[in-house]
Amino acid sequence: MEKKNLNDFEFNEFVKVINEISGIDLADKRNTLSLKLFKFCLDQGFDNFQDFLFKLRINQKLKQETLDFVTIGETYFLRELEQLKEVIFYIKGLEKSVRILSAPCSTGEEVYSLAILAAQNFIKDIDILGIDINSNVIEKAKLGKYQGRTLQRLSEAEKNKFFTKEGEIYTINKSELCSCKFELCNVFEDKFLRLGKFDIIVSRNMMIYFNHDSKLKLMERFYKILDNNGRLYIGNADLVPDAGLFKKVFSSKGVYYEKV
Fold this sequence. Notes:
Keywords: Methyltransferase, S-adenosyl-L-methionine, Transferase. One of its GO terms (molecular function) is protein-glutamate O-methyltransferase activity. By secondary structure, this protein is α/β, with parallel strands linked by helices. It has 2 domains: 8-70, no CATH class; 81-259, Vaccinia Virus protein VP39 (Rossmann fold), CATH 3.40.50. Helix content is 42%, strand content 21%. It is built from 10 helices and 10 strands. The strands form 2 sheets. The protein has a 7-stranded mixed beta sheet with strand order 6-2-1-7-8-10-9. A 3-stranded antiparallel beta sheet has the order 3-5-4. Helix 6 links the parallel strand 1 and strand 2. It starts with 7 loop residues before the first helix and ends with a strand. The model has no long low-confidence stretch (mean pLDDT 92).
């Protein structure tokens, strides 16, 4: 590719393909993405952008590498803590084994934060599954190794109990926590509907990247895998469309959604 910028048609075609694959809307990311995308294509061995778009639709390896390229999330432990506490309070009242889905889970901080809060409240009979469309963050979540700013909300006592420190690296002490698993999964693929039923879905700061149609489709899929009387917790920045499937409930610590 001789030029270093994509024209409007090329970029819009790329946006369309990514939306079809993942539901993510990149339409307003042209200024920040265009030059990076040009370099990404060259790194993948393409000198023609149309060839890249064609192969992107049919090649699973290229599809995954491209999704990894456009979905770089940043999170930290105990993010939006009051909402996490609300989830734990709800679990304590259920008095049964509980399955939780974290989607997207990014590098695992949300999953492990829930597990830490559960351990502090003597809750053991829960299973947490984290899923993400980005293969790199899933591998990092499985490793459970962290350093720097992501740990800043944790107390020294929490770090000492739930992590093993080597130099500047803190590794999750999984023996102190409930079952925490991670899987590479696209919420719009069939695999998502085969994950089983969940009592709680935590999906924070994913819908902000979706257009209205993708949000509606996502809510339909959440509805299918959420157990009867299950709850959906979303991020403060997420706008949830009214698909007639959930009832918005206000609590002292925020809002959640119940199946209708």
